[in-house]
Amino acid sequence: MLESSALKTPVLSRQRLDAATERVTLGLPSRHPDVRPGQAIQVQLADGRPFFSVAGLQPGASLELHVTRRRDSRSNPQLFAALDAGSLQISLPHGAIALTDDRRLPDILIASQSGYAQSRAMLDWMARRRPGHRCRLLWQASSGYLAAERPWLEKLAAAWAGLSLTLLPLDEHDALNEALAALPSPSTQGLAVVSGSSHFLDAARHALRRHRYTLLSDQNPAALPSIEQENAPCR
């Protein structure tokens, strides 16, 4: 498992992406642990409960994470109270998923709602570092969230010929099942990353294995906590 370190980091900006979801930019000290695209951070809340989320290291030593207000989580209000106070106590990096120059890259990224933050960080890295790689993004989210991110995604796809996009509104459940069923099977064993709730993960896993994909996190199951906790209700 990768060693993680605790840091106090300031909230630099917050942008509303839909009615419940925000993009949060966090500053980092000049000396911080190496964070790879796809890894998670753990927010240390006031009552000691951890809150896992996905964050991408951005140019200028800042972190971007997407957070959603939830009514079914006792920890969620504490997270937003900390954001309102202007800083977060975080531990990083966490999770088995990490992109590196010497590691095989995923062929498909599948995300639900704010699990997309993980996909966004990986897409940005692959576009800059491995523009010859071919990758598909399948993302289901609210209409407002899709609209907020669509310009960035379409600009990326215009510059990166190997990127294909499938963006699905959250309320079209049949569309997601149809998109998963219609996934092309790779000629060799494909590699996938899935980010979302436990129910979403289970459904996507089933479809991916039927199409001969392996989950990137499955390659190192001992490196826990895995990114699958990203949207799970916190206890």
Question: How would you describe the overall organization of this protein?
Answer:
- With 235 residues, the chain is α/β, with parallel strands linked by helices.
- 27% of the residues lie in helices and 32% in strands.
- The chain contains 5 helices and 11 strands.
- The protein has a 6-stranded antiparallel β-barrel.
- Strand 4 and strand 5 form a beta hairpin.
- The radius of gyration is 17 Å and the shape is globular.
- 37% of the residues are buried.
- The C terminus is likely disordered.
Percent range of helical residues: 25-40%
N-to-C CA distance: 23 Å
Query: Radius of gyration from the CA trace?
Result: 17 Å
Q: What is the count of β-strands?
A: 11
Class based on secondary structure composition and strand pairing: alpha/beta
Query: Approximately how much beta-strand content do the residues carry?
Result: 25-35%
Number of helices: 5
- Taking pLDDT < 50 over at least 5 consecutive residues as the criterion, the unreliable ranges are 220-235
Oligomer: single chain
List the strand order in the largest sheet: 1-2-5-4-3-6
Output mean pLDDT: 82
Q: What sequence of helices (H) and strands (E) makes up the elements? A: EEEEEHEEHEHEHEHE
Q: Which outline best applies?
A: globular
Summarize the biggest pleated sheet.
6 strands, antiparallel, barrel
